[in-house]
Amino acid sequence: MSVSEARQAAIHALWDELAELPASQPDTALDCLLNRIADLIDSDHGYWLCSIRLSDDANDPLLGWRARSIRFFGELPADQQVYVATVKRLDKGIPDESTRNHVHEAGRFRATLLVDHISEAFYQGEHYIHHYLGRGITDRLFVVMPVNQDLESYFVFDRLRGQADFTPEELEVARYALRSLSWLNRQIHLSHGQFMAEAPLTPTERQVLKHLLAGSAEKCIADTLGQSPHTTHEYVKTLFRKFNVRSRAQLTALWLGHD
């Protein structure tokens, strides 16, 4: 199934816009990406989700995969509450049918409509009734992009009550828009400290990292964040250690995918 010329042109313009954004602003790029695709497929709500494989336990219903960072667009009042409850349930190894199906397909780029991804029984289950209909969500579209064998991005777009379900043509638009953006997928995960870092980054570490990648001197970073130069320098050393680099140049090269 092909994407119309008009939508291809809009997607190509989006790619150009994303390429021009500074590497130090991955969240800005992510917001732009989510909202532009949402406009193309008429979606008013959705999110980006980071999924990490924390173990290789074959007895785990989730095969070691767990949800971590999330970023909504068109956020609904109950979104954060539902997300926290969902993560707690998943951390206990209690997946819904959709999540269970997804983890068994991990490791490859994939795009799917909800209706093609789950059984009819899902629509009568507690998860769909509470977590979907409870927020006015009636349909969902997924595009999942692996970074490596232990890390994936979920790009999720929803239809709300009163809207028609997604079409295969709209699924293809989302798939086409995201398929060539592995470089941005990498940057997004780097910014959250979930790729090539020894541990996830704290909010302050993410702020310092953003300014480092923008080329700011440590003194300027300290002034901007209201820190002492010593405190900022300690954050910089921590970031270098977490990403296993020795200099700002090595950190930037890692960010941009250079050897």
Automatic annotation (TrEMBL):
Residues 194-259 form the HTH luxR-type domain. The keyword DNA-binding applies. SUPFAM superfamilies: C-terminal effector domain of the bipartite response regulators. Pfam families: GerE. Keywords: DNA-binding, Transcription, Transcription regulation. It comes from the Bacteria. The keyword Nucleotide-binding does not apply. InterPro entries: Sig_transdc_resp-reg_C-effctor, Tscrpt_reg_LuxR_C, WH-like_DNA-bd_sf. This is LuxR family transcriptional regulator. It comes from Alloalcanivorax profundimaris. The lineage of its organism: Bacteria, Pseudomonadati, Pseudomonadota, Gammaproteobacteria, Oceanospirillales.
